[in-house]
Write a structure and sequence with these properties.
It is a single chain. The protein is mainly beta and 242 residues long. It contains 2 helices and 17 strands. It has a 17-stranded antiparallel sheet. A hairpin with a 2-residue loop joins β5 and β6. The radius of gyration is 26 Å and the shape is extended. The termini are far apart.
Protein backbone atom coordinates (compact mmCIF):
# COMPACT_ATOMS: atom_id res chain seq x y z
CA UNK A 1 0.00 0.00 0.00
CA UNK A 2 1.40 3.39 -1.01
CA UNK A 3 -0.08 6.85 -0.56
CA UNK A 4 1.35 9.94 -2.29
CA UNK A 5 -0.14 13.03 -0.67
CA UNK A 6 2.44 15.75 0.10
CA UNK A 7 -0.15 18.28 1.27
CA UNK A 8 -1.65 15.84 3.76
CA UNK A 9 1.44 13.98 4.92
CA UNK A 10 3.41 17.19 5.32
CA UNK A 11 1.20 17.97 8.31
CA UNK A 12 2.20 14.64 9.89
CA UNK A 13 5.93 15.12 9.31
CA UNK A 14 7.59 18.06 7.55
CA UNK A 15 8.99 16.96 4.20
CA UNK A 16 7.08 13.68 4.12
CA UNK A 17 5.45 13.12 0.70
CA UNK A 18 4.46 9.46 0.67
CA UNK A 19 3.43 6.71 3.09
CA UNK A 20 4.43 3.12 2.44
CA UNK A 21 2.93 0.16 4.31
CA UNK A 22 3.56 -3.46 3.44
CA UNK A 23 2.16 -6.57 5.14
CA UNK A 24 3.46 -10.12 4.81
CA UNK A 25 1.44 -12.97 6.33
CA UNK A 26 2.53 -16.60 6.47
CA UNK A 27 -0.46 -18.35 8.12
CA UNK A 28 0.48 -20.11 11.32
CA UNK A 29 4.06 -18.90 11.12
CA UNK A 30 4.46 -15.13 10.95
CA UNK A 31 2.86 -11.75 10.43
CA UNK A 32 4.97 -8.72 9.54
CA UNK A 33 4.20 -5.10 8.79
CA UNK A 34 6.74 -2.57 7.51
CA UNK A 35 6.31 1.20 7.13
CA UNK A 36 8.41 4.19 6.23
CA UNK A 37 7.22 6.11 9.30
CA UNK A 38 9.86 7.57 11.57
CA UNK A 39 8.47 6.58 14.98
CA UNK A 40 6.77 3.33 13.96
CA UNK A 41 8.72 1.30 11.40
CA UNK A 42 6.60 -1.81 11.86
CA UNK A 43 6.12 -5.00 13.83
CA UNK A 44 6.70 -8.72 13.46
CA UNK A 45 5.09 -11.73 15.16
CA UNK A 46 6.64 -15.09 14.38
CA UNK A 47 7.19 -18.63 15.63
CA UNK A 48 10.67 -19.34 16.95
CA UNK A 49 10.57 -23.04 16.11
CA UNK A 50 10.38 -24.13 19.75
CA UNK A 51 6.90 -25.60 20.26
CA UNK A 52 4.26 -22.84 20.32
CA UNK A 53 6.75 -20.15 21.26
CA UNK A 54 6.38 -16.82 19.49
CA UNK A 55 8.24 -13.52 19.52
CA UNK A 56 6.85 -10.05 19.06
CA UNK A 57 9.10 -7.32 17.69
CA UNK A 58 8.23 -3.64 17.35
CA UNK A 59 10.51 -1.25 15.46
CA UNK A 60 13.04 -4.05 15.10
CA UNK A 61 13.35 -4.63 18.85
CA UNK A 62 12.08 -7.67 20.73
CA UNK A 63 9.07 -6.69 22.84
CA UNK A 64 7.92 -9.99 24.29
CA UNK A 65 8.38 -13.73 23.84
CA UNK A 66 5.77 -16.29 24.81
CA UNK A 67 4.82 -19.94 24.69
CA UNK A 68 1.50 -21.57 25.56
CA UNK A 69 -0.14 -24.93 26.19
CA UNK A 70 -3.87 -25.53 25.79
CA UNK A 71 -5.63 -28.68 27.02
CA UNK A 72 -9.29 -29.62 27.54
CA UNK A 73 -9.35 -28.04 31.01
CA UNK A 74 -6.34 -25.73 31.26
CA UNK A 75 -4.37 -22.97 29.58
CA UNK A 76 -0.82 -22.05 30.53
CA UNK A 77 1.70 -19.70 29.03
CA UNK A 78 5.03 -18.05 29.74
CA UNK A 79 5.75 -14.46 28.75
CA UNK A 80 9.27 -13.08 28.84
CA UNK A 81 10.20 -9.40 28.61
CA UNK A 82 13.92 -8.95 29.07
CA UNK A 83 14.80 -10.34 32.51
CA UNK A 84 11.16 -10.24 33.63
CA UNK A 85 8.77 -13.14 33.14
CA UNK A 86 5.22 -14.16 33.91
CA UNK A 87 3.83 -17.70 34.02
CA UNK A 88 0.02 -17.83 34.38
CA UNK A 89 -1.98 -21.06 34.41
CA UNK A 90 -5.76 -21.21 34.25
CA UNK A 91 -7.76 -24.37 34.95
CA UNK A 92 -11.49 -25.04 34.88
CA UNK A 93 -13.93 -27.89 35.44
CA UNK A 94 -14.87 -30.08 32.50
CA UNK A 95 -13.76 -29.87 28.89
CA UNK A 96 -13.98 -26.82 26.69
CA UNK A 97 -17.50 -26.64 25.25
CA UNK A 98 -18.00 -28.15 21.80
CA UNK A 99 -21.68 -27.33 21.35
CA UNK A 100 -24.46 -25.09 22.70
CA UNK A 101 -25.56 -27.52 25.43
CA UNK A 102 -22.01 -27.95 26.74
CA UNK A 103 -21.45 -24.18 26.66
CA UNK A 104 -24.63 -23.65 28.69
CA UNK A 105 -23.55 -26.16 31.34
CA UNK A 106 -20.07 -24.63 31.43
CA UNK A 107 -21.42 -21.12 32.02
CA UNK A 108 -24.06 -22.08 34.61
CA UNK A 109 -21.63 -23.85 36.94
CA UNK A 110 -17.85 -23.87 37.06
CA UNK A 111 -14.75 -23.38 39.17
CA UNK A 112 -11.85 -21.47 37.66
CA UNK A 113 -8.42 -21.40 39.30
CA UNK A 114 -5.71 -18.96 38.24
CA UNK A 115 -2.14 -19.30 39.42
CA UNK A 116 0.51 -16.81 38.35
CA UNK A 117 4.23 -16.96 39.06
CA UNK A 118 6.59 -14.22 38.00
CA UNK A 119 9.76 -12.31 38.70
CA UNK A 120 7.84 -9.57 40.53
CA UNK A 121 4.28 -10.91 40.70
CA UNK A 122 2.43 -13.87 42.15
CA UNK A 123 -1.29 -14.60 42.25
CA UNK A 124 -3.46 -17.42 43.53
CA UNK A 125 -7.10 -16.87 42.54
CA UNK A 126 -10.23 -19.00 42.56
CA UNK A 127 -13.57 -18.08 41.03
CA UNK A 128 -16.57 -20.39 41.27
CA UNK A 129 -20.23 -19.95 40.53
CA UNK A 130 -23.50 -21.78 40.21
CA UNK A 131 -26.82 -20.47 38.90
CA UNK A 132 -30.10 -21.50 37.39
CA UNK A 133 -30.66 -20.80 33.72
CA UNK A 134 -31.92 -17.21 33.40
CA UNK A 135 -35.07 -16.67 31.38
CA UNK A 136 -35.36 -12.92 32.10
CA UNK A 137 -38.89 -13.43 33.37
CA UNK A 138 -38.69 -11.89 36.82
CA UNK A 139 -41.81 -13.70 37.92
CA UNK A 140 -40.29 -17.19 37.79
CA UNK A 141 -37.83 -18.38 40.47
CA UNK A 142 -34.12 -18.00 39.70
CA UNK A 143 -31.06 -18.01 41.92
CA UNK A 144 -27.31 -18.05 41.86
CA UNK A 145 -24.11 -17.58 43.79
CA UNK A 146 -20.54 -16.59 42.98
CA UNK A 147 -17.38 -16.56 45.06
CA UNK A 148 -13.98 -14.97 44.40
CA UNK A 149 -10.84 -15.34 46.50
CA UNK A 150 -7.42 -13.98 45.58
CA UNK A 151 -4.05 -13.71 47.32
CA UNK A 152 -1.00 -12.23 45.68
CA UNK A 153 1.89 -9.82 45.51
CA UNK A 154 2.92 -7.17 43.00
CA UNK A 155 5.01 -3.96 42.96
CA UNK A 156 1.97 -1.65 43.15
CA UNK A 157 0.05 -3.25 46.05
CA UNK A 158 2.70 -5.35 47.79
CA UNK A 159 1.05 -8.30 49.56
CA UNK A 160 -2.71 -8.24 49.01
CA UNK A 161 -5.84 -10.33 49.45
CA UNK A 162 -9.35 -9.97 48.08
CA UNK A 163 -12.57 -11.89 48.59
CA UNK A 164 -16.09 -11.46 47.25
CA UNK A 165 -19.19 -13.58 47.86
CA UNK A 166 -22.54 -12.92 46.25
CA UNK A 167 -25.90 -14.64 46.19
CA UNK A 168 -29.05 -13.57 44.40
CA UNK A 169 -32.55 -14.78 43.80
CA UNK A 170 -35.50 -13.63 41.75
CA UNK A 171 -39.10 -14.55 42.48
CA UNK A 172 -42.50 -12.90 42.09
CA UNK A 173 -40.85 -9.83 40.53
CA UNK A 174 -38.59 -9.28 43.54
CA UNK A 175 -34.81 -9.28 43.07
CA UNK A 176 -32.78 -9.95 46.22
CA UNK A 177 -28.99 -9.58 46.34
CA UNK A 178 -26.40 -10.14 49.08
CA UNK A 179 -22.81 -9.11 48.30
CA UNK A 180 -19.99 -9.20 50.88
CA UNK A 181 -16.23 -8.99 50.75
CA UNK A 182 -12.90 -8.14 52.34
CA UNK A 183 -9.83 -6.54 50.81
CA UNK A 184 -6.36 -5.83 52.21
CA UNK A 185 -3.46 -4.11 50.46
CA UNK A 186 -0.03 -3.61 52.01
CA UNK A 187 0.88 -0.51 50.01
CA UNK A 188 -0.41 2.00 47.49
CA UNK A 189 -3.52 4.17 47.58
CA UNK A 190 -5.68 1.28 48.76
CA UNK A 191 -3.46 0.39 51.73
CA UNK A 192 -5.32 0.43 55.07
CA UNK A 193 -4.59 -0.58 58.66
CA UNK A 194 -7.47 -3.06 58.67
CA UNK A 195 -9.20 -4.92 55.82
CA UNK A 196 -11.71 -2.95 53.77
CA UNK A 197 -15.18 -4.39 54.34
CA UNK A 198 -17.92 -4.43 51.71
CA UNK A 199 -21.57 -5.33 52.28
CA UNK A 200 -24.42 -4.72 49.84
CA UNK A 201 -27.75 -6.20 50.91
CA UNK A 202 -30.81 -5.05 49.01
CA UNK A 203 -34.10 -5.89 47.36
CA UNK A 204 -35.69 -4.43 44.25
CA UNK A 205 -39.49 -4.58 44.17
CA UNK A 206 -40.17 -4.32 40.45
CA UNK A 207 -43.95 -3.88 40.72
CA UNK A 208 -43.52 -1.01 43.19
CA UNK A 209 -40.36 0.46 41.62
CA UNK A 210 -38.84 0.39 45.10
CA UNK A 211 -35.29 -0.22 46.31
CA UNK A 212 -34.81 -1.44 49.88
CA UNK A 213 -31.44 -2.14 51.40
CA UNK A 214 -28.04 -0.95 52.53
CA UNK A 215 -24.81 -0.38 50.62
CA UNK A 216 -21.81 -0.18 52.95
CA UNK A 217 -18.03 0.17 52.84
CA UNK A 218 -15.94 0.19 56.01
CA UNK A 219 -12.43 1.64 55.73
CA UNK A 220 -10.07 1.73 58.72
CA UNK A 221 -13.04 1.00 60.97
CA UNK A 222 -15.13 3.89 59.63
CA UNK A 223 -18.41 3.24 57.89
CA UNK A 224 -19.48 4.82 54.62
CA UNK A 225 -22.98 3.74 53.68
CA UNK A 226 -26.36 4.58 52.23
CA UNK A 227 -29.48 2.86 53.55
CA UNK A 228 -32.72 2.86 51.56
CA UNK A 229 -35.82 2.20 53.71
CA UNK A 230 -39.03 0.75 52.32
CA UNK A 231 -41.13 3.23 50.36
CA UNK A 232 -40.24 4.83 47.04
CA UNK A 233 -40.61 8.37 48.39
CA UNK A 234 -38.62 7.92 51.63
CA UNK A 235 -35.21 9.61 51.86
CA UNK A 236 -32.22 7.28 52.44
CA UNK A 237 -29.95 7.44 55.46
CA UNK A 238 -26.33 8.34 54.65
CA UNK A 239 -23.32 7.66 56.88
CA UNK A 240 -19.94 9.22 56.01
CA UNK A 241 -17.00 8.05 58.06
CA UNK A 242 -18.58 7.23 61.40
Amino acid sequence: FELFAPALLGNVKPGMTEAKISVAHNPGQSLEMKTNFQKFTGFKIYKTGSGNERKVEVNGKELVMGDYTLTDNSFSTKLTVGADYLEPKITWEGKLPQNKAEAEAFLLKNNIVVKVAGFKRILDLSLNWKMTKPDFNFGTPENGKISLNAVGHNPRWGDYSLSRDATWKVENKVIEVHWTGLAKFAQGRLATATPIETAFNFKILLDKADLIGKFMKKVNGKEYSIDFPEGSGVMPKIVMGQ
